[in-house]
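Consortium newsletter contribution from the modelling node. Members have asked for a concrete example of what our holo predictions look like. Here is one, prepared for the adenosine-5'-diphosphate complex that several groups have been discussing at recent meetings.
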Amino acid sequence: MDDFRKPSVLIVDDEDRIRQVCSKMLTNEGFDVAQAENAEVGLGMVAKRHYDIILLDLLMPGMSGLEALGHIRADHPDTVVIVITGYATLDHAVDAMKKGAFDFVSKPFSPQDLRLVVTKAIEHTRTLQDIANEKSRVRTMINHLAGGVMTTDAQKQVALANHAFLNLIDYRGPSPIGRPVDELVSDATLLAMVDKALAMPLDQFAEITEEIIVQPQVTPGPERIIGVRCVPFRDRLGRNLGTITVLHDITTLKKMDQMKSDFVAMVSHEIRGPLNSVLMQQKVVLDELAGPLTDKQREILQRASEKIQALVSLSSELLDLSKMESGLINMDKETLDLAPILADQALFHLPKAQAKGVSLELAPLAYLPPVLANRTNMEEVLSNLITNAINYTPAKGRVIVSAAHDADYVCFKVSDTGFGISPEDQARIFDRFYRVKNEKTRYVIGTGLGLPIVKSIIEAHHGRIEVKSEPDKGSTFAVFIPIAQK
Ligand code: ADP
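And here is the predicted structure:
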């Protein structure tokens, strides 16, 4: 029933006077009213169109109201029936309620009595309709997701599984709804995840992640690698009501990742080896084991060694990045308190800041709700941002680490009073290998891989990173990580 349509009422009563009185009153109240003088006519009308409410007299010549009630409940479960009882006895009303009537009014009744019971019925149908609409919206949404979604109840029976889920696990049988999950899913890892999620204690909330391999049998094809995430869902008291499992096809991602890893392994083998041997040979010369050097020669060789050293560390960082990214695709997340991690990281980088004459402070932290994140990843993000802030801030400058609760996120910031970044460069610093080149930054050694790593970690956590910066004033990097939903 939408709000733009008048609620419809059908009055079924053999007494003309009752029909007229009710009809007049309900029409005045804004209802769309129809009348029937007996049960047979009433049922005929109900078969033709939907009525929100039926006022049904129990005692009529011909078919009784009670019998008509049975037909209406069976064929039109969305219609609310209010019975009109002719006697001052409750027996008939009780019978009717047992057969599914929503409420009753006893003759003689006042307009006020009628208004009350009809209003209550309308509220009831509205609530039912809202729930039905909401269910339909969620079902449509889930059925159109590209990812596979399945929910189970606490008894491990399937409550919902969308087409993508059935396709991804290569299921082609009858509808799995209401059946035990192990009739739908055969993969032991996935079944164990459902068990683990259901057994998760009240004070813990974690997303369980795994990768599974599906070898399609029903529709033969290449094997698929599927990323699986599973969480319990809970009632208001925190009891586990069931589980939600989400699947993503990561076959292409994994294949590309493998190619990249192979390439990186090749690079580190083919390039790092010779580079290291060049470094060794230069060292032999620098140590004057091959004869004396002039100051000029020493200076040139030293600079060459530094450049080669930078190339060696670049190839190590590349290796790190590729390891990180393959790990990131499926990394266990836990409910995490960021405050101690912020404090640890600020403390850890203090000696480096002091050596450069830059102050490093942690702003006092208010309460931070826990986030769902991977600890090592969060440390990596902070470490990169703090190192950058120190590196790109001249002596006597300041670096401040702070954090606050911001709507659905915890936001932590690393601010500095350093060189700043121009608006054009701000758009590019998250690109791989991009480094700002100017007089001030040219003496800072780096690879241009720190911020891309930071960004991919944050995206894997469904968060975001923002930068505000003004050249010669300083920069603030703000990271938003979603808070853990209970
Ligand atoms: P790297 O520091 O190794 O060069 P990053 O990816 O961490 O690589 O940073 C990319 C570039 O962004 C840096 O070269 C630097 O120019 C700029 N940058 C990053 N952080 C800051 C900062 N806090 N202040 C000024 N410039 C920064």
